[in-house]
Automatic annotation (TrEMBL):
The keyword Transmembrane applies. Keywords: Membrane, Transmembrane, Transmembrane helix. It comes from the Bacteria. Residues 47-169 form the DUF2231 domain. This is DUF2231 domain-containing protein. The chain crosses the membrane at residues 50-71, 77-98, 110-129, 135-157. The keyword Membrane applies. InterPro entries: DUF2231_TM. It comes from Saccharothrix syringae (Nocardiopsis syringae).
Length: 183
């Protein structure tokens, strides 16, 4: 466990990530940072970040597909779950990028590696999905296991970002919309 803590600390302190992490922040247009859509993606109406809730779909679908891969004859169901995970991944990416605009330098380093791990996982599951469609079941299942490993690494980094680094914590309370009085 000490090795994991050391690795997480190295990620958040690694200035070698600054160039790439900063470039990603610059790609997200400043005008979008104060836009209603971004407020929605950041979960402002909820009063907390939307990203942790939205990522449950692709994570759950990908993990469940890997469990089904352990059962004989469940390849079609596993492929369907991967398809659902891939279909829900853009929402997870969008909510994560909306949060990215709010992060400080140390948090951005962690978030950048978090994004890279999850991008690798998504690429693995996309590859597995395509391989399954062409009859390469054994290879597809192996690629899914690699993808699940990347999902785990991404989740570890996301948890560190939220719980240890406080990303998305301490937001201003969201005022409820005023009630409309009857005429």
């Amino acid at each position: 466990m000490a090795g994991v803590k050391k690795l997480l600390r190295w990620v958040e302190e690694s200035s070698a990530l600054d160039k790439a992490a900063g470039a990603l922040a610059e790609v997200i247009p400043p005008a979008l940072r104060r836009h209603r859509v971004t407020d929605l993606l950041r979960g402002r109406p909820l009063g907390h970040p939307a990203h942790p809730a939205v990522v449950l779909l692709p994570i759950g679908m990908f993990a469940a597909s890997t469990v089904l891969d352990l059962l004989p004859g469940e390849g079609r169901a596993a492929r369907a779950l991967i398809g659902l995970g891939l279909a829900s991944a853009p929402a997870a990416i969008a909510t994560g990028l909306a949060e990215y605009t709010t992060l400080d330098e140390r948090q951005r380093r962690t978030a950048f590696v978090h994004l890279a791990a999850n991008a690798a996982a998504t690429a693995c599951y996309l590859t597995s999905f395509r391989l399954r469609g062409h009859g390469f079941g054994v290879v597809a299942r192996a690629v899914s296991v690699v993808g699940l490993t990347a999902v785990g690494a991404g989740g570890l980094l996301g948890g560190h970002l939220s719980y240890a680094q406080g990303a998305g914590v301490g937001r201003e309370p969201v005022e409820p919309e005023p009630a409309v009085e009857p005429l």
